[in-house]
Amino acid sequence: MQHIVVAITGASGSIYGVRLVEELLKSDCRVTLLVTRSGFDVLSYETGLDLSGTVAERRGKMRARFGDAALLDHYDENDLFAPIASGSAVSDGMVICPCSMGTAGRIAAGLANNLVERVADVVLKERRELLLVPRETPFNRIHLENLLRLDQAGARILPAMPAFYHRPQSIDELVDFLVGKILDNLRLPHRLFSRWGDDATTTKE
């Protein structure tokens, strides 16, 4: 059973993180969900999903929302004593989705001011899978240099750029395309979109 840490930060696009958690749990992955303070605010604003409260209350809300208490866990962003803050606690990887430029910059600089940044640092040093899903446009030079440093350190950069060759008919299909690409990079099977070469994407009207 894979164990994936998912972090939702304060960038726009929190729906991507929500859908990712849903699909990971469907794949019988163990998921530890981290949400920064700004992440909670954006999540509530963009999706109406209120996961605020004490850590225990958040765990309860998350498990009620995603429906799998056995596979889903949560820690506060300031809990640097959480097991996942240590390299001796094995996870299969981490996805920061969406990843704010502030979070990316601090990880690129080797800073670890909260649990999200600390876990990212651990994943990099242990040579595990770190996927960042930045949701910013346009990028300035500082953003690009930070993302390059992260790539050079072993992270994979997967921008929130949906495709259109599968002829999406809804926002949900655009979201699913990106989540499917994340699952591809985690080497997890899914059927969230039609791949190029499938009849649905190549048949002319």
Number of domains: 1
End-to-end separation: 43 Å
Low-confidence stretches: none
- How is the biggest beta sheet arranged? 6 strands, parallel
Report strand %: 5-15%
Q: What top-tier CATH class fits best?
A: Alpha Beta
- The tally of helices reads 8
Major sheet strand order: 3-2-1-4-5-6
CATH architecture annotation name: 3-Layer(aba) Sandwich
Element-level helix/strand string: EHEHHEEHHEHEHH
Determine the mean pLDDT: 93
Say what the CATH topology is: Rossmann fold
Specify Rg, calculated over alpha carbons: 17 Å
The helix content is 40-55%
Strand-pairing-aware structural class: alpha/beta
Work out the number of β strands: 6
Overall shape:
globular
Annotated CATH homologous superfamily:
Flavin prenyltransferase-like
Describe this structure in words.
This protein has helices at 14-26, 37-47, 55-66, 101-108, 115-125, 141-153, 171-185, 199-202; strands at residues 3-8, 30-35, 72-74, 93-99, 129-134, 156-157. By secondary structure, the protein is α/β, with parallel strands linked by helices. It has one domain (3-202): 3-Layer(aba) Sandwich (Rossmann fold), CATH 3.40.50. The longest helix has 15 residues, at 171-185. The termini are far apart.
Which descriptors apply to this entry?
205 residues, alpha/beta, Rossmann fold, six-stranded parallel sheet, 6 strands, 42% helix
The gist of it:
The chain is of the alpha/beta class and 205 residues long. It has a single domain, classed as Rossmann fold. The chain contains eight helices and six strands; from the N terminus they run βαβααββααβαβαα.
